[in-house]
Design brief:
Helix content is 76%, strand content 3%. By secondary structure, the chain is mostly helical. It has a single domain, classed as Rhopdopsin 7-helix transmembrane proteins, CATH 1.20.1070. Strands 2-1-3 form a three-stranded mixed β-sheet. It is globular and about 65 Å long.
Length: 334
């Protein structure tokens, strides 16, 4: 049975109540049904255990990274200041999406209220936009560190670092408020089927009773601007970084400079690569599973990968972890 037929059966099963009007009251009473991976009944428990494991690693990894950066004075430098905020954003982003995903894998009722769905989208939007520009800020930080090492502490002053972080959060909030405002202008009625595990903008707009043109144009302009502007900052920074590295006379110096950027380049490649792939998937019936898998990757898996990427490739972080573990073991032996 094709996925389209299966979705139609779900619509019949859940019903469509209160479809006689388009008033604000009907919108307030509207609910959303997150189908998620419910078509794979035999995989509900394995998927629950898999995502629970990923979420546990995400929480421990990101909160652990923040703690490590705070307790080690050697890590009180701009690069780790930005990394601590990236870890905080990843933790918040995953916590916005994953608990509901886990709940829907173990309960029969997969509904989410209109308010809950809008709030989930709003917070997810804040954190994904913030992460997009936090990665761009970290690219600029690496540019200054490699291309102007003698001026690094002067250029990347605490004030500038705070401003860059605040700007990333502020822009994320501004984008979220704008998109959420226009979503609230739409009308909804009854139960609305969302063939995903998260309240994603396009899926919410698709089930509304209103003309989607304005919302579709706003999300297109917003997403295009955010992706292009952040990638321009990243690419420009790394072009200058590679030019500087190639001019270094020492092979050891080149290797050291590249190693300081390796973790960040890996994080950027995974994050932007997944998002670009997701938006390049053709909008067809056969692409729904691919869209879901890609959505899982950038909403659930990437927040877990970032602390692992930075910890496994960073000597200072690994040394701090070893010291914390050895101190804890020493305390237990006393």
């Amino acid at each position: 049975m094709g996925e389209t037929s299966w979705v139609k059966q779900k619509i019949v099963k859940f019903g469509t109540k209160n479809q006689e009007n388009h008033t604000a009251g009907a919108t307030a009473r509207a609910t959303f049904i997150l189908l998620g991976f419910s078509e794979y009944a035999d995989l509900q428990v394995p998927l629950f255990l898999l995502f629970l494991t990923i979420y546990t690693i995400t929480v421990l990894g990101n909160l652990g990274m923040i703690m490590i950066i705070r307790v080690n004075p050697k890590l009180h430098i701009p690069m780790y200041y930005f990394l601590s905020h990236l870890s905080f954003v990843d933790f918040c982003y995953s916590t916005t999406v994953t608990p509901k995903l886990l709940e829907n894998l173990v309960v029969e009722d997969r509904t989410i209220s209109f308010t809950g769905c809008i709030m989930q989208f709003s917070f997810a939007c804040i954190f994904v936009v913030t992460e997009t520009f936090m990665l761009a800020v970290m690219a600029y930080d690496r540019f200054v560190a490699v291309c102007n090492p003698l001026l690094y502490t002067v250029v990347m002053s605490p004030k500038l670092c705070s401003l860059l972080v605040a700007a990333s959060y502020s822009w994320g909030i501004a984008c979220s408020l704008t998109l959420t405002y226009f979503l609230l202008e739409l009308s909804f009625r009854g139960n609305n089927i969302i063939n995903n595990f998260v309240c994603e903008h396009g899926a919410i707009v698709a089930v509304s009773c209103s003309d989607p043109y304005v919302n579709q144009k706003i999300i297109l302009v917003s997403a295009t601007f955010n992706e292009i502007s952040s990638l321009m900052i990243v690419l420009t920074s790394y072009v200058f970084i590679f030019i500087t590295i190639m001019k270094m006379p020492s092979r050891g110096g080149r290797h050291k400079a590249l190693s300081t950027c390796a973790s960040h380049m890996t994080a950027i490649a995974i994050f932007h690569g997944t998002i670009l792939f997701l938006y390049c998937v053709p909008n067809s019936r056969n692409s729904w599973l691919v869209v879901k898998v890609a959505s899982v990757f950038y909403t659930v898996v990437i927040p877990m990968l970032n602390p692992l990427i930075y910890s496994l490739r960073n000597k200072d972080v690994k040394d701090t972890v070893r010291k914390l573990i050895s101190n804890k073991l020493f305390c237990h032996t006393l």
